[in-house]
Amino acid sequence: MFACNYLLSGLEEDTTVVAAADAQNYAQKLGISHGMVVQELGWDEDTDDTLRNSIEETIGSELLDEDTDEVVEVVLLWWRDGDGDLVDELLNVITPLADDGIVWVLTPKTGQPGHVDPSEIAESAPSAGLNSTTPVSLGSWTGTKLTQPKTPSKQR
Predict the structure, then answer these.
(1) 109: β partners
(2) Which of 27, 70, 74, 76 could form a disulfide linkage to 58, CB 3.0–4.6 angstroms apart?
(3) What is the pLDDT of residues 80-92, one digit of tens each?
(4) C-beta separation of 103 from 87 below 8 A
(5) Beta carbons of 114 and 46 less than 8 angstroms apart
(6) 93-108 residue pLDDT tens
């Protein structure tokens, strides 16, 4: 049992290293890279600062808020049960989105206050002209990637 041979004093340090590695992987899991323009909507006291900081560190700047006039490549939408009509919100968030931009709907995990069933996101996305993908785990939050349909190339 090699795993049982950890010294108690080293266990805390190993756990910290793993947590830091997970935080660095958040931006990678979301497909976010250096220099991307990322907007954040729905921030509240319950949002995951580790996730937010990971993204800001990766892009090399702060997340833009709802007041931006810039075209954005990624929208992070923190969404909870009771926040309103998801279709209406999605229609609003795609306005500043680049043609190939994506929306990440971030919801509390199952069992957490404010949890949103993934089927609600999957049903709301097409009404806003978006396609949804399989959710990914992001700490105590779940992220669902929404993409815009590919436009067919112009024929001659």
Answers:
(1) none
(2) 27
(3) 999 999 999 999 9
(4) no
(5) yes
(6) 999 999 999 999 999 9
**Entry pTM:** 0.82
CA distance linking residue 72 with residue 74, whole number of Å:
6
Nearest partner of 130 among 106, 108, 105, judged by Cα? 105
What separation in angstroms does the CA of 23 have from each of 32, 48, 100, 102, 115? 13, 10, 26, 21, 22
Nearest of 83, 96, 113, 95 to residue 105 by alpha carbon: 83
First to last CA, the chain: 67
Q: Please, are residues 63 and 73 in contact by the beta-carbon 8 Å criterion?
A: no
Are 132 and 145 within 8 A, CB to CB?
yes
Closest CA to 39 of 99, 102, 87: 102
Task: With both helix axes pointing from N to C terminus, report the angle between 86-93 and 118-127 in degrees, rounded to the nearest 10.
Answer: 50
Return the amino acid letter for 99: D
Name all domains of the chain by residue range, CATH numbers in brackets: 2-147 (3.40.50.150)
